[in-house]
Amino acid sequence: METLIINGGKALQGSVEINGAKNAAVAILPAAILASEGKCVIDNIPDIEDVHCLERILSSLGCNVHKVNNNTLEIDATDITTVDACNEDVRRMRASYYFIGALLTRFKKAKVELPGGCPIGARPIDQHIKGFEALGAKVTIEHGAVNVEAENLHAANIFFDVVSVGATINVMIAATMAEGTTILENVAKEPHVVDVANFLNSMGADVKGAGTDVIRVKGVKKLVGCNYSVIPDQIEAGTFMIAAAATKGDITIKNVIPKHLESISAKLMEMGAIVEEGDDSIRVTVDQPLKGVSVKTAPYPGFPTDVQQPMSTLLSITNGRSLIAESIWENRHKHTDELKKMGAVIKVEGRTAIIDGVQNLKGAKVVATDLRAGAAMVIAGLVAHGETEIRDIGHIDRGYPHIEDKFRALGADIRRELR
């Protein structure tokens, strides 16, 4: 089994380049099958396992997928041979549900196995189904697969019962070639929602309002190939910002959009860290003891749920008491049991973690219980005294490209081993 071995206690110094956004790429790649003519050349794609998984799914559907380099894919979807996406790769990742909307839009039918992903709580697709049905599709779930079919897709006014990134993107994709103008309300406003909308428009779609409370999608007859570059990863950037503060280091995080990081920057500054914004970079330094704060996750522009687990590591070594209220997922504090193995003092009550800061953490054998929990454990290992061994790092590889290489370049003592 592959593990990460970290000897902590070093202040990280230097600069790091942020890759393309995982959460955007995993929706943009399925959406590329909407192009019935031409090829989609997509660059700034993160070199992560979730992307590799999507490459295999696209190929299994009959797409011609050419890897130009580690961060650029060329996808030719003109000769798709099946609308049946039922295999192990589909089952293993959450974002495979975007194939439902994409296949439904182009072929008016699809069969896609129910997705997996990180075990962070119930993540139903009822809002996706509500949207597909409003557009005129018949949806059934049989033997663990979602079947959708429609004679014709037509515009609808759809108000989502909850703010859902996945449902917003999936129904937006499904509406691109529906007859008329679809209006989506109570939508997610995350940067990667905007990025997917921009990608669809680059293919010839007519999507307006992404990033606001209302998205309008005017149906078009067809979509064609395009060249597109994925936005920087807000979550990877936030992880390195927190690592800089936790190790009391000095890191310049490059290739970012500072506005996407404002909620994280604000919370770090409230704690006493120094955050300096450039045009496409952020520098985080610490020159004083940090103080505890209260954090509540919320849809964008609020504090990202994907960053709260790394944040919990920082708060575990911060003076005073901190609170983290998780408003998105019910099981996103599972990693706190691993932090407690390293000496953290954390009590979980419902969806709230109560954290009393300690002077330092101690190295231990821990598990990455999910993707962002894995990032939390890496930061814990970087600040801990002694050696930390992190197992189940396949979760980390799903979302953080070459994480050990990036931290090693900043001065960390971190390596990958088979144990």
UniProtKB/TrEMBL annotation:
UniProt-annotated binding residues for phosphoenolpyruvate: K22, N23
Domain Enolpyruvate transferase: 7-406
Catalytic activity: phosphoenolpyruvate + UDP-N-acetyl-alpha-D-glucosamine = UDP-N-acetyl-3-O-(1-carboxyvinyl)-alpha-D-glucosamine + phosphate
Compartment annotation: Cytoplasm
Annotated function: Cell wall formation. Adds enolpyruvyl to UDP-N-acetylglucosamine.
GO BP of this protein: cell division; cell wall organization; peptidoglycan biosynthetic process; regulation of cell shape; UDP-N-acetylgalactosamine biosynthetic process
Protein name, per record: UDP-N-acetylglucosamine 1-carboxyvinyltransferase
2-(S-cysteinyl)pyruvic acid O-phosphothioketal modification, residue list: C118
GO cellular component, one term: cytoplasm
Pathway where it operates: Cell wall biogenesis; peptidoglycan biosynthesis
Keywords carried by this UniProt record: Cell cycle, Cell division, Cell shape, Cell wall biogenesis/degradation, Cytoplasm, Peptidoglycan synthesis, Pyruvate, Transferase
UniProt xrefs under HAMAP family: MurA
UniProt cross-references to CDD domains, sorted A to Z: UdpNAET
One function term, GO molecular function aspect: UDP-N-acetylglucosamine 1-carboxyvinyltransferase activity
Homology family: Belongs to the EPSP synthase family. MurA subfamily.
Pfam families linked to this entry: EPSP_synthase
EC number: 2.5.1.7
Active site per UniProt: C118
